[in-house]
Write a structure and sequence with these properties.
Elements lengths: L1 H22 L3 H20 L1 H9 L2 H27 L3 H17 L23 H22 L3
Helix pairs in contact: 1-2
């Protein structure tokens, strides 16, 4: 009973404000205010206001709203985790299956044909320069020999 009285008073006040606004030749604003003021009156006439008043004072209804909020929170958190992981379960499964198929086709295709290269380190300055040149040249040829042996040549 109180909700209907309050909604009717709000509608009447809103229509009065709309009339004053229209008198000031601001018709667009007046129509908008009239539309907003008729909403509570429509809620009273349809019975929604009574239902809202009964719901507002019902502990069971509030518990229901809490459960709905918890449900929404769970949905939102699972969606956030799903985005962080990189897609849905189906997408992750398909990606893993595709990776397994690629490995089955050419498991060592991207492996380098040569082992890790070794560079000659700097020699101490006490050795003669001519001897250092021959050692460096020999080291270069030993690398080439290792490559040729690896390929069976």
């Amino acid at each position: 009973m109180i909700a209907e009285t309050v909604c009717s008073a709000v509608a009447a006040a809103g229509l009065g404000i709309a009339a004053v606004t229209a008198y000031r030749k601001r018709f667009l604003s007046a129509v908008r205010i009239a539309a907003y003021s008729l909403v509570p009156l429509g809620l009273v006439m349809t019975g929604v206001a009574e239902w809202l008043a009964d719901t507002a004072f019902s502990p069971t209804a509030w518990a229901g709203f809490v459960v709905l909020g918890l449900s929404w929170l769970l949905f939102a958190s699972t969606r956030a985790v799903e985005r962080r992981r990189g897609g849905t379960r189906k997408e992750r499964k398909a990606a893993a299956k595709g990776a397994a198929q690629r490995e089955a086709v050419a498991p060592a295709a991207s492996a380098p044909s040569l082992g890790p290269g070794t560079r000659p380190t700097a020699k101490p300055a006490s050795k003669p320069a001519s001897r250092a040149r021959t050692e460096t040249a020999t080291d270069d040829f030993s690398d080439i020999e290792a490559i040729l042996k690896k390929h069976g040549i």
